[in-house]
Write a structure and sequence with these properties.
CATH topology of one domain: Bacteriocin As-48, Chain A
Largest sheet: 3 strands, antiparallel
Shape: globular
Strand content: 5-15%
Distance between the termini: 54 Å
Helix content: 25-40%
Order of helices and strands: EHHHEEEHE
InterPro entries: DC-UbP/UBTD2_N, DC-UbP/UBTD2_N_sf, UBTD1/2
Protein name: DC-UbP/UBTD2 N-terminal domain-containing protein
Number of strands: 5
Structural class: alpha+beta
Radius of gyration: 16 Å
Organism: Platanthera zijinensis
CATH architecture of one domain: Up-down Bundle
Length: 114
């Protein structure tokens, strides 16, 4: 690819489709309150890891949305999804955005608060 009229070569796929993350297990059982606290802490500090705040905001919106809406959000923000579970993404300028698994889904050993 190179000019506006070109088409992707066979096997060239820069546009991965988002998929639901695989199940994972936290080292010890974790409550929903603890998980929410970890997520809030990550999103509060994420812009300090580098990249653009607007991209972090788009990634958060995508993570909190269903899969089809998440795809629309990352596409409109110009996010390049390197891993279909969104653990590694890039913006159009090449900045890398890494999302931990605890942001993307719930662990299999989650303890629901009463």
């Amino acid at each position: 690819m190179g000019c506006f009229a070109s088409t992707p070569s066979k096997g060239e796929d820069n546009d991965k489709r988002i998929q639901k993350p695989k199940p994972w297990e936290h080292p010890q059982p974790i409550s929903t309150t603890e998980l929410r606290r970890m997520r809030d802490e990550f999103w509060d500090t994420a812009p300090h890891y580098g990249g653009q705040k607007e991209i972090w905001d788009a990634l958060r919106a995508a993570v909190e949305a269903d899969v089809s809406l998440a795809q629309a959000i990352v596409d409109s923000a110009g996010v390049i999804v390197a891993n279909s579970d969104m653990t590694v993404c890039y913006d159009e300028r090449g900045a890398k955005y890494e999302l931990p698994k605890y942001i993307l889904s719930e662990p299999t050993n989650l303890i629901h608060d009463s």
